[in-house]
Amino acid sequence: MNSIREFLDAEKPEGYGKRVLEELSKLNEKLNAFNNITGRLGEGMPFSVKDNICVKGVETTASSRILKGYMPAFNATVVQRMLDNKFSFIGKTNMDEFGFGSFGLNSQKPARNPFDENYVAGGSSSGAAVATSVLKYHVAMAESTGGSISAPAAFCGVVGFTPTYGALSRHGLIDYANSLDKIGIMARHAADIRYVFEMIRGQDPNDTTSIEGKYASEDRKRIILVDQLVNGIDKEVESSFMGLVDKLEGMGYKIIRKSVPFIEKAIPAYYTIAMAEASTHPASYSGFKYGYKNEDFTQHYNQFFTSAREQFGEEAKRRIVLGTFVRSASVRDKYYSKALKVRSLLLHELEGVLNEGFILSPTMPIQVPRVDDAGSLTPLEVYKTDIMTIPPNLCGLPHVSFPYAYHKGMPLAAQLVTKQWNDEAMLGLVDGWEKGFKYRFKYNIGELR
Amino acid sequence: MKIGLEVHVALPTRSKLFCSCRTDAEEPNTAICPICTGMPGSKPVLNEGALTLAVSIANALKCKVPAATSFVRKVYFYPDLPKNFQITQKDDPVGIGGEISIEQGKKVGIRRVQLEEDPAKIIRQDDYTLIDFNRSGIPLVEIVTEPDISAEDELRSFMTELKSILYYIGIDIDKELKVDLNISVKDARVEVKNVTGMKNLLDAARYELQRQEKLVKAKQEIVQETRSYSEKDMHTVSSREKESDEEYGFIFEPDLTVYRTKGIKTAEPVYASRLAREYAKKYGVGESTIRELIMFNKESLEMIESYKGKHDMKPILNAISLLQRYATAKPTAATFEKTVGLLEKGFYPDKEAILGIESGKKVEAHAAAGTGEIDKEIKHLIKENSKLLKEYEKNPKVFNFIIGAVIKKYKSNPREVSERLERILEGFKR
């Protein structure tokens, strides 16, 4: 199933592009998928861009009040490569401020789940997932640091792919935690993701950490279930997930169970590194060069910059404080340096497991939560819901979330993880899955008949 | 008493350390881009030329260059720091544990050599603070010494040796080096930040030493602190910030990678000071004469190197200083050979003669006329003062005024004139 080919081959009626964007804008008032819709839909396949990825001359805020009005002077490399391949940019998608969040609620206007607005969209790439779920022909440039593609893709019932760290250039990405940030792709079908991934990946002179990967395509027909990722989770999620496992067994996959106790160290290590790196950036948003402008030049030095700081949301402030603490000299070895060690040990351990086959788990340990319920969770409870998405993110391993069932009208999703540069084979498995399972969508804006 | 230095050297690369902006712009904020102004979304990309130069410096200062070098974020907030952190080096700098030999016969240890970016420049004007980002991202090498300097003359020698080594790597030493001085007379270490220029450096060190010694004499405590030097008042003042309490929260710079140093082609270091000593010994000429010619002059050194086997050292050195004074362009081999040739025959070419040699005229007669004229003038002056000839036997210095007069008239070399005078007076005696 390749909707890009289908779209390009189809005859579009007069005024098609305009109508699509009008319908989208109207629905956006309800779902808050986009921070802005530019209204320039040309002949190309539409694509949206998460609001922390720079598009030249288009307001890019990472959903933060402090970056309001920031107009990048350049395109992110992935955006430029999409434009060079005649894709049509339609707008910037909503997200948790700077990527800090798992449910999309850390935004001034949180995105809503397209299946039911009383439910969260997931985060931090909330808008990218909602846009993918409502537009018939569209791919989303999203970004993941600790699960920001998998989580919203799971809750909105779309396919969300996070590639090997370094596969897609980060040039033009507003940093959350540079050693963990990965640009990725969301779409309705794995084939569309493969098409776009092949088109935009590769080394970029503007990002030192980008790599011309040595891609393999290795599918050993084996699926590994890690005890620590499938035990002790929501009962409904667990039982329906076992249904998926049975079906994959029916497709010829051998199921292997394994215990990897060390994987439980991933969450503390991840949050330590993520916050340490994240806390080095926000002070540069100082209110006089770009974004939010403090025009009162009569204020004294400290006053002037303190008033800029007031623009940060609560979660951003929390991460600045925690991250600054774990970097400080007296505790650096205890936290930051130790977390770096955990990361390399875990990568080593997971590489061993992944040499045997794909790791499969539910994407999230919970069903899609209602907005009210998610909003009342403590920060620690929220961080714990990232248990499945954090290990591959911490280690820069490719992973993809895809829907496999619907419960009470809401999607349930699973996540596949593979070893570095084996992205293609993993997407191939999802492609195979789609041949026997039809995804459901509530909206199909832009449908061509 | 101990003095340690942190010397900041701007590298002469054409583009900045992490972006392609040029480094020589004069009008404020004209050589800037999203990277060096820290625009969200921009990423640094290392200028490999700067890394090569930094490794060359580390190598010339006899440091151990680690197999791999990496960068860190030094996080602090100041309006001249557009990213809120400076990209610098900490655990794996380009050089560790080197040394510089100084004239006093001792060695000053080099603790580390690191590559880092310069912040923007802050200009205070009336009620405003203006920021020029042209300087943001200029590559700097910071050279940190051990506290091995223990006197003012050692400080001067160290700086001269360091500058000469840097000069031969291609660093523009006319740009003033920025130095942080760490001085301790007793236990407390006082840092004097941001001193520029040799004179200021020596003045600041002298002032600070006297200040601390006075406190010791009066049995008062020396406060461990950071001070700044005021050029106008020639003294240091406390700058209130407490360096030891500062917290930079260093983390590995994740936008860059680990850089291998193996295979980097470094510049061959030149130690002019050591060469001067060797040549002086080997060829029996004055060490200070050679030092003067070669410490900061590549062309002179090249000429010495290429002619040292072919001619005596003395006429070579004379030819170099004559050509330096009078030649209009870089001397060709032919010009050099002719000049040395004349000197070897006892002629002393004047300005006119050198210009003649350069333009390829037949010059021997001309140059000879030049020296002939000097001889004529000397003879003339002796005759005019022939009364003094009697006195000359007892006091050989009695005719020395002639040297001054001739130099003034012909702008000739003092040593040459005095030799001629001596020779001519010999004739008068006979």
Name the descriptors.
heterodimer, A: 449 residues, alpha/beta, Amidase signature (AS) enzymes, 11-stranded mixed beta sheet, 16 helices, 37% helix, globular, B: 430 residues, alpha+beta, 2 domains, 8-stranded mixed beta sheet, 3-stranded antiparallel beta sheet, 40% helix, 19% strand
Question: Can you walk through the features of this model?
Answer:
The complex is a heterodimer of chains A (449) and B (430). Chain A is built from 16 helices and 11 strands. By secondary structure, chain A is of the alpha/beta class. In chain A, strands 1-3-2-4-6-5-10-11-9-7-8 form an 11-stranded mixed β-sheet, sandwiched between helices. In chain A, a hairpin with a 2-residue loop joins β10 and β11. In chain A, α4 packs parallel to α5, α9 (266-278) packs across α11 and α9 packs across α12 (333-354). Chain A is globular, with a radius of gyration of 21 Å. Chain B has 430 residues and is α+β, with helices and mostly antiparallel strands. Chain B has 2 domains: 2-260, no CATH class; 272-429, no CATH class. Chain B contains 13 helices and 15 strands. In chain B, the strands form 4 sheets. Chain B has an 8-stranded mixed β-sheet. Chain B has a 3-stranded antiparallel β-sheet with strand order 4-3-14, with no helix packed on it. A two-stranded antiparallel sheet of chain B has the order 2-15. In chain B, a hairpin with a 5-residue loop joins β10 (178-184) and β11 (190-196). In chain B, α10 packs across α12. Chain B is elongated, with a radius of gyration of 28 Å. The mean pLDDT of chain B is 89. The chains are: A alpha/beta (449), B alpha+beta (430). Chains A and B meet through loops of A and β14 of B.
